[in-house]
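Step 1: inspect the first sequence and its tokens.
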Amino acid sequence: MNVLITGGSGVLGRKLIESVLEKYKIIAIGKEYGRISETIRHHKNFKFYERDLTEIRSVQDFKITEPIDLIVHLAGAVSGSKLSEKDFFTINAESTKHLAALAKEKHSKAMLLASSVSVYGAQEEPIYTTSPTLGSTVYARSKIAAEEYLRNAGIPYSIFRIASVYGLSSKSFIQKLFSLYKKGFYPKIKNQSPKSIIHIEDLNLAILAWIERVLTGASIRPVYVISHPESVTIQQVIEEFKTHRKPRWGILGIPVFPIFIPIFDLFYKILRKWQGLPYHESPLGPLLHSIEAYSEESWRDLHLIPKWDLRKGTTQYK
């Protein structure tokens, strides 16, 4: 079986490739071949295509001649990237459209899109797989557009709406908090709402289970919400850090008052303009915006239970 994995040089892509390389022929797309380990590079089941998704305009631009049984689309511009709105949509949405066309051309069994719970946006009601997608950030809107392309492609598919992914080398809000924690402070936000998370190990297992379902002919759901059943707050994360790494000089919680947020946003917006970089949202966004979503049915369908709660997941942050 030939499995095409985009984002093959990313953290999740490399982990997934290591997990399936002995079982399937892997054709990976990525931007940085140099990040692939020597063990993987020279494996008989591995082939890598260095591609920039901003330069893909059609199926032909992928220049992939091998048959493709399955596509796992992990590549994408992440929230907070220093990209224009056009590049966000090119990388996240347009690439999905072209990959879906490739799946159709290759008669692939199915395609998986790594999306985000950010597509739901902030909602008062509990969020499930069927909840409306009300996300308003450029990242969320680009993922909503990607999902729409996939739904209309006329191929078997699944969308993984993934919570904030944490673990070493990730770029999650937990990683950002840890960077601040090591410097001796953290943002103290009053009435912080819980936020859904998922450890990279549990996410990897979920993708592996989905691949097995597709390639064995089992049914798949159109949408999965991939998150741990226990959501967390900033304060809970900080308390877990304290159990693993005692700050040398103590830890200071700096209050983030609502009145200061628009002032900080304006300052950051001016700074980005002076730097000649696009502005989409404040760096405080990932900390201030809390999306809590969970789907027991998604895990049941994959025959899995998440193993990495916050206590176990933060043991790596030492």
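Step 2: inspect the second sequence and its tokens, then contrast the two.
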Amino acid sequence: MPIRIVEVAYDDERAQELRRQLNDDLDQRYAPLHAPAESDEVRAARAEALRTRPEEIVQTWLALDEGGAAAGHVILRRLGEEWELKRLVVTPAARRRGVGRALTAAVVDRARTDGAHRVILQTGAAQPESLALYTGAGFRPIPVYEPYAATMAGSLCFALDLD
């Protein structure tokens, strides 16, 4: 499937829809792992840790299929001094066709061009396809970093050195 990677605004409707689909998928994958008696305070703190603020966003990309439909999405954001790959999602129909690799490459290329020394990311064990993608792209495990350490200590975090 030929794909085209395009830069879009964070609030692009197609990007928003793919992030909604990602949220639904992650809710299904991770809800069973959260304690049944988890407090509203813990849930709110986790939502805050996962929030992407507009001022942090460097770029948002979509992968478009040959018909122009959105097949994937990713964000590059500045997280303090770090450069973070965030909100990577590939539609079910586009999986196993190189879309995730192409979106990851867009993030890495832009971060490198802008002077980053590494790209970091956060994921989890309930996303085996993501783990395979990231390790296949050369990312290596690192300790869980903020803002995830307090509310998602079981996260799996990775970095790719660009130097």
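Step 3: confirm your contrast with the notes below.
Residues 4-161 form a domain with the Aminopeptidase fold (CATH 3.40.630.30). The chain has a mean pLDDT of 91.
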